[in-house]
Amino acid sequence: MNGIIIKGIGGFYYVRSADKTVYECRARGVFRKDGITPMIGDRVEIDAEGKTGSIVRIAERKNSLIRPPVANIDALVIVAAAASPSPSLFLIDKMILNAEINGIEPIICINKTDLADGRDIEDIYKSASYRVFRISVKDNVGIDDILPVFKDKVTAFSGLSGVGKSSLLNRVAGINTQTGGVSEKIQCGKNTTRHVELFELKDGGYVLDTPGFSSFEPENIDALDLWRYFPEMADAGDKCRFRGCSHINEPDCAVKALLQSGAIRESRYESYKEIYEILKNKKGWTRK
Questions:
Q1: Phi and psi dihedrals of 284, rounded to 5?
Q2: What is the pLDDT of residue 255?
Q3: DSSP per-residue string spanning 137-205
Q4: Pick from 105, 111, 103, 98: which is nearest to 149 by CA?
Q5: pLDDT tops 70 at residue 42
């Protein structure tokens, strides 16, 4: 029978079938021989007897992430706090890039609008053509607006600890995962999620709880192609005076012209430059 891996612990994979039965499965040795590890979100075929079985086939993945190790994600909800902890726009931009590279729709969710309105963050990302939601899980504000995002999709949550990922997940999925507050001294959240798990939604789709924020360093992308993953640069990146323009130091740069006009926000451009340097300094990179 066919199903989806919803959880993996200690070498066991829990597969939910179409009739909503969950089977505890091991992966057949052939996967280990071929260097394939099943991932949460994999669509699989299992051979089961009773409530236990074996994974015999893994369907082709539309995408996969290393941290957390999950597959077949449709959307990534990047949760940031309007305040406490203070938002890091660079980290948001790195998570957006991670989604863009993997063909996942990034969606920005600004929580804790009971502490600050978050309109400055909303303005930055709406101007880059991303969907943005401002909510307060504490005051139950804006939750109904974001619910349609999850219908019939596999949606992952990402963001710094303490921004309210687990609290939002609890509200969306009707579950009760552990949540943690924010230290007054260091303004940093305590990670409370211990493993990766898919939760099925009553109206269709799954949401994915992840074990806190892990930093993403871009891979499998050339520095000179970076601009293609910034939507606000997409119409200008190949219209510069010089072929292979880095959009940093060259004259007559169409991207910098958009920056000067305000069409590209300063924080987004600063993130672009910082990520460009990371990519440029990767071992083996040479300018085309």
A1: 95, -5
A2: 96
A3: TTTTBSHHHHGGGGTTSEEEEE--TTSSHHHHHHHHHT-------B-TTT--BPP---S-EEEE-TTS-
A4: 105
A5: yes
